[in-house]
What we know:
Chains A, B: Pfam families: BPD_transp_1. Chains A, B: Keywords: Cell membrane, Membrane, Molybdenum, Transmembrane, Transmembrane helix, Transport. Chains A, B: It is found in: Cell membrane. Chains A, B: Residues 6-210 form the ABC transmembrane type-1 domain. The complex is a heteropentamer, with two copies of chain A, one copy of chain C and two copies of chain D. Chain A is mainly alpha-helical. Chain A has one domain (3-216): MetI-like (MetI-like fold, Orthogonal Bundle). Helix content of chain A is 80%, strand content 0%. Chain A has helices at residues 4-33, 39-51, 54-65, 70-79, 87-112, 115-123, 128-139, 141-157, 160-166, 176-185, 189-217. The longest helix of chain A has 30 residues, at 4-33. The N and C termini of chain A lie far apart (42 Å). Chain C is α/β, with parallel strands linked by helices. In chain C, the strands form two sheets. A five-stranded mixed sheet of chain C has the order 2-1-3-10-4, with helices on both faces. Chain C is globular, with a radius of gyration of 18 Å. The termini of chain D are far apart. In chain D, the strands form two sheets. Chain D has a six-stranded mixed sheet with strand order 7-8-9-3-10-11, sandwiched between helices. In chain D, strands 2-1-4-5-6 form a five-stranded antiparallel sheet, covered by helices on one side. By secondary structure, chain D is an alpha/beta fold. Chains A and B meet through helix 2, helix 3, helix 5, helix 8 and helix 10 of A and helix 2, helix 3, helix 5, helix 8 and helix 10 of B. The site of molybdate ion (MOO) has 13 residues of chain C, from helix 5.
Amino acid sequence: MDWSPLLLSAKLALLTTVLIPVAAAPLAYMLAFFRFPGKSLLDAFITLPMVLPPTVLGFGLLVCFGPNAFLGASWEQLFGQRLVFSFSAIVLASLIFNLPFAVQPMRASFEKLDSRLLESASILGLSRTAAFFRVVLPNCLGGLAAASILVFAHSLGEFGVILMVGGSIPGETKVASIAIFEAVEALRYDDAFRMSALLVPVSFVVLLIINRINQRDQ
Amino acid sequence: MDWSPLLLSAKLALLTTVLIPVAAAPLAYMLAFFRFPGKSLLDAFITLPMVLPPTVLGFGLLVCFGPNAFLGASWEQLFGQRLVFSFSAIVLASLIFNLPFAVQPMRASFEKLDSRLLESASILGLSRTAAFFRVVLPNCLGGLAAASILVFAHSLGEFGVILMVGGSIPGETKVASIAIFEAVEALRYDDAFRMSALLVPVSFVVLLIINRINQRDQ
Amino acid sequence: ADLLVAQAANFMPAMKEIIPVFEQQTGLEVDATYTSTGKLYGQIVNGAPFDVFLAADQRRPDKLFADGLCSEPFVYAKGQIVLWSLNPQLCKGDWTKAAQHTDAVKVAIANVENAPYGNAAMVAMQKAEIWDAMQSRLVFGQNIAQVFQYASTGAADAGFCAYSSVFTEQGQKGCFVEIPQAPDVIQAACILNSAPHSEAAAKFVEFLATPEVAAIKAKYGYK
Amino acid sequence: MSLNASIRKRLPHFELNVELCCAPGRLTALVGPSGAGKTTLVRLLAGLERPDQGVITMGDAVWVDTTRRRFVPTRKRGLGLVFQDYCLFPHLSVRQNVAFAATQEHRVDELMERFGIHHLQHRKPSAISGGERQRAAFCQALARNPSLLLLDEPFSALDAATREALRKELKDLKTSLDIPVIHVTHDLAEARYLGDTILPVVSGRVAPDWLERQYVPFLNTSDTLPEPS
Amino acid sequence: MSLNASIRKRLPHFELNVELCCAPGRLTALVGPSGAGKTTLVRLLAGLERPDQGVITMGDAVWVDTTRRRFVPTRKRGLGLVFQDYCLFPHLSVRQNVAFAATQEHRVDELMERFGIHHLQHRKPSAISGGERQRAAFCQALARNPSLLLLDEPFSALDAATREALRKELKDLKTSLDIPVIHVTHDLAEARYLGDTILPVVSGRVAPDWLERQYVPFLNTSDTLPEPS
Ligand SMILES: Nc1ncnc2c1ncn2[C@@H]1O[C@H](COP(=O)(O)OP(=O)(O)OP(=O)(O)O)[C@@H](O)[C@H]1O
Ligand SMILES: Nc1ncnc2c1ncn2[C@@H]1O[C@H](COP(=O)(O)OP(=O)(O)OP(=O)(O)O)[C@@H](O)[C@H]1O
Ligand code: MOO
Ligand SMILES: [Mg+2]
Ligand SMILES: [Mg+2]
């Protein structure tokens, strides 16, 4: 059996899950605790990839990533490589469409935090950043776990956006969800079955681990 | 321009959002407050549609909904209509793949509920069911709103599963996400753009409304 | 991989046999991706890194050539559509009757815009003047492979499939009727100018003209 | 009422063993040092905590018997309960909270009047002071006409005047209610004032001698009594 | 220290206007009826509440001045604070809580020893009793060597013996700490015992006459003093 789609999917899901907090945590923190003009706009803008059909998003990204668009052209200048239909492109796309799935649960758990804890932190002299790392984060592990479940699951299963910006290039952008689709279409049921049979238990184990973390935290 | 894909998408999203609590709320309640054998299995089973690539789920449903399978055959007996490739089929599929997106946020907000509230309810003589309606639900509107945002967004944007079970029938199962996909692949960028241009602001407005409800609750 | 071929979905059964032979002869490793001709064309226009494009029509390779995106196209196969079904009842007699049989609640056809085989099916139905009557029964696959999937799982009662799929293992499990009204599907191929592996691409195109390939194509009903 | 229970999670070092003889209309004041298990005892009586092992009886009824796997759920015990950190339902107004499990509407107003929170009836619990919240909790517990009233330091958030008023209220109430009242307090004076019986609990057992050791009323050691500025 | 502030959301009917003269090493006890604004006052001093309008000064420093848009954030005010319903960080052990903002490690042990919670140092706050929690909160506030100590009914969850011990502790501490202490209490006896100054606050203003009206020590009305059973 061809392992590359499974490996690609795993790589994509892990990369996304690891990279996304860098963007999502500060955004969630801002949305939960700060008041600033244009907040509801930012909020809606971040949530957009969630409500947009993957094909619409994929279309938008396809245009942006193309060699004629600014992003695609700059990328080609910087890295000497075509962006669209590359693995980098699907990672980027995955980060973008997963952003709301990471921000929303994080934000919800930040907002649910007992406000007295933040009051305590400021009484004890902590700055907002210090309070974030020493008080908010450790008390919101549940929310973070929920966020990673969603993100991991999503990047493992995403199909529409990746099909649009990645095409289906073997070894580069043909992730498991696409490979399974094609295998089913080509009536190679045994291949489809084998890949699913591997994907499902692996996802399951990841899910169980995250659930365990989640429960320990409660 | 052809409006029917947009109308179909709206119909599908609304129906799913309205119907899903019937199944999701009791499941979330059970998972949050009860202990029973096989709970973690049920939990994992419900989460499955979230980790499965939509194409795997879609193929499974295609087979189950077909006239040779038990479900598809019974449906045809009951309603005198073919299930697969019908609007009912995509609503059913949408309910199934959205279940975890509804159950997870509900459950999270149920679990975060101050346990003293439930203690109070039982001291005041409420049964578990009564406590659910009079104490749990009104204090978890945020979680319910989060659940509906996710479900609405998902059913509006779902692509992979519907691509498999829907058959892209104009006016019946060719929802906006598929119509846009086909338009882009056919290089009819203007059509794709026009549909997206309508879908985006509509989704935006729905988002803002749900956010408003969410905020009022806090 | 040393070569990436973008092929129209209908040619997939034949390609599955062609690739191992080519790999054995040259020692090159070949990857292939398939979907409808229109989708592949869209991806090529947007910069997809394919080497060889095996289309299911002549129009799109010609267009690429006109836009300076590929070398001169050549015809590599001529295919046909058939009406395929799991239900033996539907294979008795004329295809127009079969398509309108009461058992044929749903009939699958490929996207008429992106898939030349879907287009051919439409043309045939229009010629037979049953296109309008068929509308309520039609179910659309994204490419000819999905059409066969719909038909072979029984989700659709019949499908306008590529003749080549009749010769597959699954295809043997059902029956088919021919469609005389349908035009031959003339399939052209070309090497892309942006091909990352142009040498291997040239070798592959050369290989397509060999008798071995001709034998495989014949086996799958291509002319 | 008798309680004999071990609950290792909370009380690893001792087990509760208390015989409470509390007649209708009478108040038993439970006093004892911090960590003696007073709150645990109340939670066990209320069915909010399950003993690892033990028996709890209330009159003739057996509420808990671990050997016979018997456990009467909280809601069937007909309780009124006020905790020190009792929380009202945040989504309901003060009035709705009091009326939540009330049997008669007029009783709701009567109680709120009596506890001096009638003017706050339309506020949410988050917008009233700690003492006001405690009074509302009192009203909520009484509004359902419980058959046993459990109070775990219910006056701790109140100023002296309000507390004294409420104590008087409770003293009047307890006879008119005609139900047994169990009142945990750390204020010996309060226990003496309100209690028909004072039950000192130390490490889960009735310990009458503890009471005597405590009897050095704090106010008499008034070595520094500065004048009001 | 002076505070002149209106905060309509919490206090629609009056505005706070209090002049506190609290020298280092001295304790000012704030007493007053429920709803007088004592907690609000403490929260304003701590910067946890922003006045709609008003000025708060601490010595020479202006902490809040709404007309000049000045607001010193809580974390820069160098406070120690213990609320009645203070909550410790649930993810940390008792020791980690105390050490959270501590300046010296040895002080952490010293304080836990002093407040009798050293043996609980590895437990989580959810697994200790209310009184134990309050003592831990005390340690946490003191461990960072604050320059002003604010206490809002910090002893309410304690039994008489522990409370008395803590009061003695606080009395000793306040001179060794050498910082001003502001102590809200509803226990007049406590105020008299601990306070170098007693400040009765009614409806947001200092009201010395309230104190006199209160001066009917509750314990003397011992009309019913049942013997321990
Ligand atoms: N949730 C819990 N899990 C484990 N142990 C607990 C828990 N709550 C309390 N304890 C422990 O149980 C013992 C008794 O606690 P309890 O709350 O019953 O005491 P109490 O008599 O009410 O004391 P206080 O007067 O301080 O409220 C204490 O030693 C405490 O540390
Ligand atoms: N979050 C809030 N929002 C609006 N009003 C509030 C809020 N908290 C308290 N109040 C109101 O402000 C007034 C003063 O409350 P505060 O908590 O300062 O009183 P207090 O003197 O501390 O009383 P107690 O002794 O009962 O604790 C009360 O009338 C109360 O109803
Ligand atoms: O082989 Mo096609 O391009 O799907 O008709
Ligand atoms: Mg207690
Ligand atoms: Mg107060």
